[in-house]
């Protein structure tokens, strides 16, 4: 399991680097080729995570909770990278569409009637641009909400895992005689995790509000 875990973690780091290459790609052909390669890598990571889920259940009970938490972190990182790839693909599609429409408009030969229509089009264009920005804003908000939902789901899963680990540690205390100092450290860590979860939720809400204000 350890070998597969480290291999998957290295794949996630490579995907992150490749996403930077996608963002810096000059031509649409290069960008699309890189996007396909990144998607293949993400699919491979998802397959590894499914195998890791099976291997986690074969771990000893004392190590299972920690192994499950590590696999959940890999899944969360993979979801984040998948969301980043989709945003880059959407950004590229919008840019290609704008370039195509601009080129078509510049290459068109206007007649007298077309000139009047073009003037009307210029008048309507700001409203269309405003509507396009609102549409993009709504789409970005949907992406942010989905991303925030995945974060909250992952935090809830980790909270359940920590509760189970804490319960098992309490059971082990009666058998192994763990010191009160160690137990207090564990309880403080649980309290800190709850505080971090609340802060992350608040930060996510503030970020989504700022994005909404920016696009509108």
From TrEMBL:
<keyword id="KW-0653">Protein transport</keyword>
<dbReference type="GO" id="GO:0005484">
    <property type="term" value="F:SNAP receptor activity"/>
</dbReference>
<dbReference type="Pfam" id="PF12352">
    <property type="entry name" value="V-SNARE_C"/>
</dbReference>
<dbReference type="GO" id="GO:0006906">
    <property type="term" value="P:vesicle fusion"/>
</dbReference>
<dbReference type="GO" id="GO:0015031">
    <property type="term" value="P:protein transport"/>
</dbReference>
<dbReference type="GO" id="GO:0012507">
    <property type="term" value="C:ER to Golgi transport vesicle membrane"/>
</dbReference>
<comment type="similarity">
    <text>Belongs to the GOSR2 family.</text>
</comment>
<dbReference type="GO" id="GO:0000149">
    <property type="term" value="F:SNARE binding"/>
</dbReference>
<dbReference type="GO" id="GO:0031201">
    <property type="term" value="C:SNARE complex"/>
</dbReference>
<keyword id="KW-0813">Transport</keyword>
<keyword id="KW-0472">Membrane</keyword>
<keyword id="KW-0333">Golgi apparatus</keyword>
<dbReference type="GO" id="GO:0005789">
    <property type="term" value="C:endoplasmic reticulum membrane"/>
</dbReference>
<protein>
    <recommendedName>
        <fullName>Golgi SNAP receptor complex member 2</fullName>
    </recommendedName>
</protein>
<dbReference type="InterPro" id="IPR027027">
    <property type="entry name" value="GOSR2/Membrin/Bos1"/>
</dbReference>
<keyword id="KW-1133">Transmembrane helix</keyword>
<dbReference type="GO" id="GO:0031902">
    <property type="term" value="C:late endosome membrane"/>
</dbReference>
<feature type="transmembrane region" description="Helical">
    <location>
        <begin position="196"/>
        <end position="215"/>
    </location>
</feature>
<dbReference type="GO" id="GO:0005794">
    <property type="term" value="C:Golgi apparatus"/>
</dbReference>
<keyword id="KW-0812">Transmembrane</keyword>
<comment type="function">
    <text>Involved in transport of proteins from the cis/medial-Golgi to the trans-Golgi network.</text>
</comment>
């Amino acid at each position: 399991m350890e070998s597969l875990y480290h291999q998957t973690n290295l794949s996630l780091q490579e995907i992150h680097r490749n996403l930077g290459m996608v963002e810096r790609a000059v031509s649409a052909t290069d960008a699309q080729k890189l996007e396909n390669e990144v998607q293949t890598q993400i699919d491979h990571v998802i397959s590894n995570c499914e195998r890791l889920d099976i291997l986690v259940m074969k771990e000893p009970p004392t190590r299972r909770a920690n192994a499950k938490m590590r696999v959940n972190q890999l899944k969360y990182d993979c979801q984040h990278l998948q969301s980043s790839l989709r945003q880059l693909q959407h950004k590229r599609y919008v840019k290609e569409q704008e370039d195509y429409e601009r080129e078509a408009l510049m290459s068109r030969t206007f007649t007298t009637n077309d000139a009047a229509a073009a003037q009307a089009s210029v008048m309507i264009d700001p409203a269309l641009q405003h509507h396009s920005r609102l549409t993009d804003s709504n789409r970005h908000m949907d992406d942010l909400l989905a991303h925030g939902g995945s974060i909250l789901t992952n935090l809830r899963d980790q909270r359940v895992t920590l509760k189970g680990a804490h319960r098992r540690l309490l059971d082990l205390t009666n058998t192994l005689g763990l010191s009160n100092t160690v137990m207090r450290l564990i309880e403080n860590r649980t309290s800190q995790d709850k505080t971090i979860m609340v802060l992350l939720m608040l930060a996510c809400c503030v970020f989504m509000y700022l994005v909404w204000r920016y696009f509108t």
